[in-house]
Design brief:
Number of strands: 0
CATH topology: Amino acid/polyamine transporter I
Distance between the termini: 22 Å
Number of helices: 16
Number of domains: 1
CATH architecture: Up-down Bundle
Largest sheet: none
Length: 461
């Protein structure tokens, strides 16, 4: 990076924590999780034990030991060399380019469903495309200029989760019966709904390394990242359980909409559509900021790979003024827009489109982590760098996370129905999309490595 455009150390400890809250506390997924019914409470506890806490500890060690620009890309490059790092950057970037459409389909579906219910389905698609390019533009600004948006969104997310939990309590205190039976029997994990929605919970337990891509803008990443990650895990588990409980008290599972479920809950519990509408606007704002964090994080890693000659030069283009990865951001906008329109022709409703895009992008989303955990084990074994934070039983935790992620990939493809059946139409569309993404990535990465004309498979010294 040009020294004149080198970013200032803009992010303090509070900024790092709120940035992670903004990125990882997925308020748009509360209704999706809660459709599991009361068993979601136990599934969250199980997920915390087998993936969220282990992943948090492993990520905290990596982020504090190797506060390198590029985050997960830099860690994998240290462990396995440039070729695997390039693959990781491709998966990370393309996953976000594929996830952004699902997030904005949810956003536009909620906006239309709550405020403009008579608008057509294609209005939602067009709004999604417009939001993609608004996000691209805002991501070209420096974090020093935009961190206040992310910080406010982090606080807003905490508020939303708290309000949903309070709605559940207020609904019962006002003399209403719970909308769903919540007891030991109904909370017991089941293999029908659980297998369908469990991978979504596992999906929500990843991504804690996202701000590490911008570690060069942190004042003290070795100290702040472990604290922020461990605090984030505690908040996410507790708040997701409390929010699901609140929603279950208010809305029958069979009537819960995955797009407007938060609004449904607030309208019924608060008895005020204007107040519920205001809170839903805050939710939309927080989701918008969340997408900003992810889009920028993925683009930074892709820019690093582009500048190292491992991805095409267009990814390497960098703003001289802000240091933003403008080449990767522009490509993200193009791919995300195309995917929204393409899937718009394939899905009948916003809900169908949302879940299909989520499943497709989530499988690709898991690929970098399937490489990261072996990289952690390799670095633990071969690298003697002093660790500011060391995860207890780190190698075992990394193996556990690897197994859980493989299981989640299978469930995203399988997506069993109530009869444990197999929907070939749904699964094949996901499988074909994933294979095409992997093959395209291999073609690009291998072409670029051949172009560099040197062997890059060996780990860096």
């Amino acid at each position: 990076m040009n020294e004149l455009s080198a970013p200032k150390k803009a992010l303090g400890g509070a900024d790092v924590f709120l940035g992670l809250v903004c990125a990882i506390l997925f308020a748009d997924q509360i209704a999706t999780n809660t459709q599991m019914g009361p068993s979601v409470i136990v599934w969250w506890i199980i997920a915390a034990i087998i993936i969220f806490i282990p992943n948090g500890l492993v990520t905290a060690e990596l982020a504090s030991t190797y506060p390198d620009k590029g985050g997960i890309y830099a860690w994998i490059r240290r462990a396995f060399g440039s070729k695997w790092a390039a693959r990781t950057s491709w998966f990370y970037w393309i996953n976000i380019a594929l996830w952004v459409p699902s997030a904005y389909v949810w956003f536009s579906g909620g906006l239309i469903g709550v405020f403009f219910p008579d608008a057509g389905y294609w209005v939602e698609v067009l709004i999604g495309v417009a939001l993609v390019w608004l996000t691209v533009w805002l991501c070209t600004k420096s974090l020093a200029d935009s961190k206040w948006v992310i910080n406010i969104a982090g606080i807003t997310k905490i508020l939303i989760f708290a309000v949903i939990a309070i709605c559940g309590v207020a609904f019962i205190v006002n003399g209403n019966q719970p909308a769903n039976v919540i007891n030991a029997q109904t909370m017991a994990p089941t293999l029908d709904g659980g297998l369908k929605y469990l991978p979504v919970i596992i999906y929500l337990c990843c991504g804690m390394e996202i701000l590490s891509a911008n570690s060069q803008e942190m004042r003290n990443p070795k100290k702040d990242m472990p604290r922020a990650v461990i605090g984030l895990v505690a908040i996410c588990v507790v708040f997701n359980i409390l929010a699901s409980l609140g929603m279950l008290n208010v809305v029958p599972v069979g009537e819960l909409d995955i797009i407007t479920g938060v609004y449904q809950t607030m309208v019924i519990a608060l008895g005020s559509e204007p107040l519920a509408g205001f809170m839903f606007c805050l939710l939309l704002f927080s989701v918008f900021a969340q997408i900003m964090v992810w889009m920028l994080g993925g683009a930074v890693g892709a820019m690093e790979a582009g500048q190292d000659g491992e991805l095409p030069k267009v990814y390497a283009k960098e703003s001289k003024k802000s240091g933003a990865p403008i080449g990767a951001l522009a490509l993200t906008g193009i791919v995300s827009s195309a995917v929204i329109v393409l899937y718009g022709f394939m899905a009948e409703t916003a809900g169908d489109l949302f879940f299909t895009l989520l499943a497709f992008s989530s499988i690709v989303y898991f690929f970098p982590y399937l490489i990261m955990f072996p990289a952690f084990i390799k670095l633990r074994t071969s690298d003697s760098t002093q660790r500011a934070f060391k995860a207890p039983a780190g190698k075992f935790l990394a193996i556990l996370c690897e197994v859980v992620l493989v299981f989640a990939v299978v469930l995203f493809v399988w997506a069993p129905d109530d009869n444990m059946g197999f929907d070939w139409g749904y699964s094949l569309s996901i499988i074909i999309g994933v294979i095409a993404t992997v093959v395209l990535g291999e073609v690009i990465v291998n072409h670029m490595l051949k172009k560099k004309g040197r062997m890059l498979d060996r780990p860096d010294d």
